[in-house]
Amino acid sequence: xxxxxxxxxxxxxxxxxxxxxxxxxxxxxxxxxxxxxxxxxxxxxxxxxxxxxxxxxxxxxxxxxxxxxxxxxxxxxxxxxxxxxxxxxxxxxxxxxxxxxxxxxxxxxxxxxxxxxxxxxxxxxxxxxxxxxxxxxxxxxxxxxxxxxxxxxxxxxxxxxxxxxxxxxxxxxxxxxxxxxxxxxxxxxxxxxxxxxxxxxxxxxxxxxxxxxxxxxxxxxxxxxxxxxxxxxxxxxxxxxxxxxxxxxxxxxxxxxxxxxxxxxxxxxxxxxxxxxxxxxxxxxxxxxxxxxxxxxxxxxx
Amino acid sequence: xxxxxxxxxxxxxxxxxxxxxxxxxxxxxxxxxxxxxxxxxxxxxxxxxxxxxxxxxxxxxxxxxxxxxxxxxxxxxxxxxxxxxxxxxxxxxxxxxxxxxxxxxxxxxxxxxxxxxxxxxxxxxxxxxxxxxxxxxxxxxxxxxxxxxxxxxxxxxxxxxxxxxxxxxxxxxxxxxxxxxxxxxxxxxxxxxxxxxxxxxxxxxxxxxxxxxxxxxxxxxxxxxxxxxxxxxxxxxxxxxxxxxxxxxxxxxxx
Lengths: 302, 255
What we know:
The complex is a heterodimer. By secondary structure, chain A is of the alpha/beta class. Chain A has 2 domains: 1-51, no CATH class; 55-293, Rossmann fold. Chain A contains 11 helices and 7 strands. Chain A has helices at residues 2-10, 21-29, 38-48, 68-79, 94-104, 119-133, 159-184, 198-201, 207-227, 242-245, 268-280, and strands at 59-63, 83-88, 109-113, 138-141, 189-194, 232-238, 291-293. In chain A, strands 3-2-1-4-5-6-7 form a 7-stranded parallel sheet, with helices on both faces. In chain A, helix 4 links the parallel strand 1 and strand 2 (83-88). The longest helix of chain A is centred in the middle third of the chain and has 26 residues, at 159-184. Chain B has one domain (9-192, 222-247): NAD(P)-binding Rossmann-like Domain (Rossmann fold, 3-Layer(aba) Sandwich). Chain B has 9 helices and 7 strands; from the N terminus they run E-H-E-H-E-H-E-H-E-H-H-E-H-H-H-E. In chain B, helix 2 links the parallel strand 2 and strand 3 (58-62). The interface between A and B is large, with 47 and 41 residues.
């Protein structure tokens, strides 16, 4: 196995692909894996991604799963064996595209198109997801309006932008948590909210969204305190914000705060989804109210 | 008497009572001219009279911070009466702030109450104050709370707005640093009227809370919190920005 992976890394064109090849290849490309540590890396890759059963039989719901970061998380959780409810506003039928991609790999998934403007519509969408796939085990709230990721000095923010970039971010997370509570209150389960590290660091040009995400972090802590007795854990994952912008994202000052200790801000599917899967697995049952930075070691202060 | 803020012009929102009143009184004693921006002018006028009795200068302006025009009028009053603005302190919170709520049944309307005063009010205050603060390389201060750092099972919406204000401060400090405007947060633990009422209703509560505080007592809005605000607005803090000053007798040690 290791011999095969090493041979493949040295000469990918003429060598059969080892298992976990996509993950190994991605990590190799970013300089994270060499022929020296490949054995260790294959073990890690296999334990959480390809062919893994970490989330076999679990049902995960991902908001914002029709594009970008949310889609990558949905695909990564499907890689880990979960059935996926993919929720989003229906832009370019992205949710259905995510579902197709999961189904093509032999996974099970359902798309639900919904906005996040009222509790009612979010509750309805979560209920529809549960009807389609079964009782939800994991809710990941990754939805964010792309406008929140555009750099803009506060002096140039108007009331509509403020609402979308800050307050709507908070309201959607509040409604998602409340709808998650409705789904999880009897059986327990996991809630994971996405809060980029710029909520922790602050960033010029991002007053509105950083304020929004910090509110979401405190929503997670408060929900963790309140719903712990129901067997519901609530945590945040904090990626570098550049991951949410994605290709073709809005222009502006770079969101990257500094160099990552691991050399890259990472890849949502390969580097971050496995951690969400771990949180959602039995191994994650005693972690709640936490913010897990998954930024490759950019922001180490808190 | 030392007057570290002599001649400075300061707007304090929510200054009709509690921590806002304490900050306004302390700033006035420190020599500042203070605009008492208060929702109820009957309370604000009382504080302005208290300040006048100290031989200092204050002006009460009716101000609902959920209305942009009101916040702009408070700034304009500072400019008109005191010649400019050196510091904006946004302290006002919803009067429903201390009201416990269950997260799962919290309504959008209750969120709007919390958000419109604390968070949207911060946005209005920053935009309204910017031209004046820029001209004087002034200070912008928001009031936050431990709930905004550790979460709260009983006050989840309050925790959310108070957290949002901390990130607001961090980002705005990075944005306004090049303008010479310092932006900070102050996290007090003070005997506000709501807390004093709670102590009166449940005498054991005061002893319980005091036991959690290394300095053994809940702070006084003027002597303890106001005094720290004067430091934060004064020249001694000119190299402090983007920070949360926790002024709580040592209760919160999470930073």
